[in-house]
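#structure-requests
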Amino acid sequence: MGLFKKPTTNFPEFWKHYESHFKKPTSKDFNELTFVVLDTETTGFSFDEDRILSIGAVKIKREIISVQEVFEIYLEQEKFNKDTVHVHGLLKNGQRVCISEILALEKFLDYVENSIIVAHHAVFDIGMINSALKRNGLPKLKNTVIDTGVIYRKTFIKSYLVQPKKNYTLDELAEKYAISKKDRHTALGDAYITAVAFLKIVSRLREKKKFSLKMLIN
């Protein structure tokens, strides 16, 4: 009786290229790490029914936002939800150049590589991207993820008098750290606000003992 051989999945070259970055060892020096701070604008909040309209991202290296390496793409709208237009302002037949979902995923994976992803309420953004990957027959993202909403709570000093809330909005973080909200509710604008907030939070957490990447992830 012959041995059962598990069939191999023929993923596209861009996915194989993305996966290859994770074969390299990750630096243990926080200052040597690259962070990709991202945001998505979507037609709604359902991972199954809704779609990504745009992805915006910026890179942080050595705790500096690299303005030369911004990422901004708009996707073709197969689904349109007029109820969310007032938030993101993306019309179905707008003037922006839009690309297909699969091409958007290819460009994003090429940009993110094995960087650590940072997002505010990251479960949603990562979930939307993973749903898009699944629709196109691809596995989930392999990147380590940091949520600014979670690590912001770690800046609070433990006290019986002041208890941090369970969730903080991006607007609350922007107000806390006096960050301009000029481009709020655009994917790239929100990514930039999140990036500044992330650096402010890291600066605060560095004051604590045993600061490390593990502190941010856990």
